[in-house]
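S.,

Sequence below, as promised.
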Amino acid sequence: QVQFVESGGGLVQPGGSLRLSCTASVSILSIYTVGWYRQAPGKQRERVATTTTGGGTFYADSVKGRFTVSRDNAKNTVYLQMNSLNPEDTAVYYCNNIGSNIVPWGQGTQVTVSS
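The prediction came back faster than expected:
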């Protein structure tokens, strides 16, 4: 069963940027769609972006134009470049499969946007 490990979070000021990494325990070429999710305190987990092996991407309206998802197949890693961050982006960020293929969640990486 694939496992995902997230990293790259931290504290950033409003308007700043961060790049998150998600490394899979298997070749991501075998994972058609990888999703980035986030869960803010007191809120449900939401999917913010996805990337497919075919190059397709999806972004939630709340991050469209600010976040960019990419993948490095050689490193089995999916990235989430986050720009123009605002306090509403504060959350624990996770990566995983989507839909019925979701596996147990990893620890995630905390992103805090605050001045």
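The chain is about 0% helix and 45% strand.

Coffee later?
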